[in-house]
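Response regulator transcription factor, pasting as requested.
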Amino acid sequence: MRVVIAEDNALLREGLVLLLTSAGHEVVAVAGTGPEILPALLEHRPDAAVLDVRMPPDFRDEGLRAALAARKEMPGLPVLVLSQYVEESYAAELLGGGASGLGYLLKDRVGRVDEFLDALERVAAGGTALDPEVVTELLTRRRDSPLDSLTPREREVLSLMAEGHENATIANSLVVTERAVHKHIGNVFLKLGLPQSDSGHRRVLAVLAYLNSTQRA
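Structure tokens follow.
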């Protein structure tokens, strides 16, 4: 996989390069400031981009802006955004144009190497990877919504779905059968008024679209 990395912290940037290279990926370019990101992406047209949200010169949302601009120029470009904290508005804006090939992780997740690499590979394949803490924020943010009708188990299943996990992984995580997971997913879709589709990434994208719409409500 060919990857572009944008991170202003030199130690973390070099750590990401080493991590990805050791995993067999090729880092084709690195950026240390916001203005460097889009030109690097357009020049190298990577298989995926790993971008920090806040970059110099202003440390606001330079990485996010670059990600959105790049996906306009290269529709479907897989982007994994890293953030120091849970910032719901950034997650919502990132998902606003469609959740395919997008991820939003807290930087602490990078230290969990297997989880980070798995998330990047899911994003590169066109899937979705939301940090569990981001999902929790989205799920608990509002009252008087259809989410309140979900049982605790259904909320657990929804959270794992939104993180991008397949049914088998959800079943193993919750120590239940895949048949039980399929039943819970059906109940979630029914209560949220979503299409009864449980195939591929479509079910994840549908849930993320619902969460995004409630975020903006």
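Note for the archive: The chain has ten helices and six strands.
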